[in-house]
Write a structure and sequence with these properties.
Metallo-beta-lactamase, Chain A; seven-stranded mixed beta sheet; alpha/beta; about 250 residues
């Protein structure tokens, strides 16, 4: 019996250690604001966690993202219907939800995530100490065939989140659209890239030059040649924009 109890205790300690190490190895980013610190954790591909003022906001929770060691959500923001942004069976949403978790999403997502409140391009809402604006994300030239696009205009949302005088932009799946280039006063931008669905690194860099955030973090690149984050960073050299390259695709251990 003592041997069994000892093994159980050891197994529990090992599990705790694994969770702790996994959580510690995530490249957490900290940003100071007038309302306190904002902490942003990249999780996987398009999935990230934003924390401030004791609240937890998840963006695009979807498989195969792991939420081990991470807190439950107070708010979930979804950008689009595709499986790398939301699970059709909502399994990731269920994993991180608790009583009172709110979900905001475009109408196309609300059709199957029926508990979501709809937020559409051009709408701005207040939540806790945050101001959250849904902005356009779409394709202008790329699609599965002539006359069709991977992301139709108005279907999905990018988001601009403001907290304590700082503005954070989440691009969602988009090309270098005019609405992105016209953004103002962005402190931190998360900008997508990969082909054929969004845009190559060079196009993403040109868009970033246009709206000139203080810091840009490429995401949604999958390690493809079209998502060459080093080429992206090189193209922004000399602009005064800080480029942070984070690990969005942790290796299985």
């Amino acid at each position: 019996m003592k041997w069994l109890l000892s093994r159980i205790v050891m197994a529990g300690a090992l599990a705790t250690l694994v969770i702790s190490v996994h959580a510690q190895t995530r490249p957490v980013q900290n940003f100071d604001t007038s309302a306190g610190q904002v902490k942003i954790t990249p999780i996987y591909h398009a999935t990230l966690l934003i924390q401030a003022g004791g609240k937890n906001i998840y963006v695009d929770p979807a498989k195969p993202a792991s939420f081990t060691g991470l807190p439950p959500a107070d708010l979930i923001l979804v950008t689009d219907i595709h499986g790398d942004h939301v699970d059709q069976d909502q399994s990731s949403i269920k994993t991180i939800s608790k009583a009172g978790t709110e979900i905001w999403a475009p109408a196309a997502v609300q059709k199957f995530v029926t508990t979501a409140a709809v937020i559409s391009n051009g709408q701005t809402k207040k939540w806790d100490k945050w101001t959250i604006e849904a902005v356009p994300m779409y394709n202008m030239t790329r699609g599965p065939e002539a006359g069709k696009y991977f992301h139709d205009k108005g279907r999905g949302n990018g988001y601009v989140l403001a907290y304590g005088g700082q503005r954070f932009y989440i691009s969602g799946d988009t090309e270098a659209i005019p609405e992105m280039k016209a953004l103002k006063n962005i402190d931190v931008a998360f900008v997508c890239m990969n082909l054929p669905y969004t845009m190559p690194a060079e196009e993403a860099a040109d868009a970033v030059k246009a709206f000139h955030p203080k810091i840009v973090i490429p995401y949604h690149y999958r390690g493809q040649p079209s998502g060459d984050v080093n080429a992206f960073k090189q193209k922004l050299e000399g602009t005064g924009i800080e480029v942070r390259l984070l690990e969005w695709y942790p290796k299985a251990s």
